[in-house]
């Protein structure tokens, strides 16, 4: 497993969960307390997100952090 | 779920996995490429660890990131 794949998997899972809820990135940003552009960067796997921010997203999406990091 | 609990759960899971392998913090530091004092801080939930470093630890411990973040 090459380092850096977890970011990509996490971003894909956040986007999938957000879309399932029918939310825009703006909506997820409001609910998680994070910035909209940051949400976009996370979904693209472009940011080395911290565990606290990962937890904010999981809580806003009402899904476990473990779930968001499950391999495909 | 209060933000900051994921750090604590992750730290506990890293310590448990390390102990199961019979490794010192030094050994895990060598295998993950992270500093020994940083390992100690992570295990105490004292650092807001990034996803890339979480992945380094999971890979060194030969366990999935999702596994390390499972709630008790």
Automatic annotation (TrEMBL), chains A, B:
Matches recorded under Gene3D superfamilies: lambda repressor-like DNA-binding domains
Sorted UniProt keywords: DNA-binding, Transcription, Transcription regulation
Entry keyword Endoplasmic reticulum: no
Domain HTH cro/C1-type: 14-68
Secretion signal span: none
Keyword Transcription regulation: yes
Source domain of life: Bacteria
Pfam families linked: HTH_3
This protein's name: HTH cro/C1-type domain-containing protein
Source organism (scientific name): Chitiniphilus shinanonensis
Lineage, highest ranks first: Bacteria, Pseudomonadati, Pseudomonadota, Betaproteobacteria, Neisseriales
């Amino acid at each position: 497993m090459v380092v850096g794949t977890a970011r990509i998997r996490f971003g894909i899972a956040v986007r999938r969960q957000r879309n399932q809820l029918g939310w825009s990135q703006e909506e997820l940003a409001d609910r998680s307390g994070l910035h909209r552009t940051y949400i976009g960067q996370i979904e693209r796997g472009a940011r080395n997100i911290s565990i606290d921010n990962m937890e904010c997203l999981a809580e806003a999406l009402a899904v476990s952090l473990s779930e968001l990091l499950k391999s495909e």
